[in-house]
Specification:
142 residues, alpha+beta, 4-stranded antiparallel β-sheet, 7 helices
């Protein structure tokens, strides 16, 4: 998994249109380290691989490379194959913000970030901007 992420790092950066500086910052790396990884002279290691898979879990490139959610795969590897499902629109840390035709936006009471869930309960996106999430709802009215 680590080697594959090393090889895909530059492509994921291109997929998101990130500069080397922005990608390095997103992964907690120096630009120099990022360049060394992209040139094949260094490696993300486990921590960098986990960060790439978590931060860029929506990457079509990573999803197609791993056959599914890269963050879930990283968690399964770290936890010896068992990943408890924790994505919920309910619970003590989440306050409902809106319900638009089954599309649910909730806010975390501690971090204050928001999550958008589809009518089927699938986690669609997370953001600190609830309007950005609402824009992801098909036929949503501003």
């Amino acid at each position: 998994m680590i080697g594959l992420c090393d090889r895909k790092l530059k492509l994921v950066r291109a997929e998101y249109g990130y500069s080397q500086e922005r990608m390095a910052a997103a992964l907690g790396l120096s630009k120099k380290t990022l360049l060394e990884i992209e040139k094949g002279r260094s490696s993300l290691g486990w921590t960098g691989t986990a960060a790439l898979c978590a931060v860029f879990r929506s990457s079509e490139l990573l999803i197609s490379s791993f056959g599914g959610d890269p963050a879930e795969l990283a968690a399964a590897m770290a936890l010896d194959g068992f990943v408890p499902e924790r994505h919920s629109s309910a619970g003590p840390f989440w306050t409902p913000v809106s319900d638009d035709g089954g599309w649910i936006v909730v806010q975390n009471v501690i971090s204050q970030h928001y999550r958008l869930f589809s009518p089927t309960g699938e986690l669609i996106a997370s953001s600190f901007d609830p309007e950005e999430l609402r824009s992801q709802i098909p036929d949503a009215k501003p």
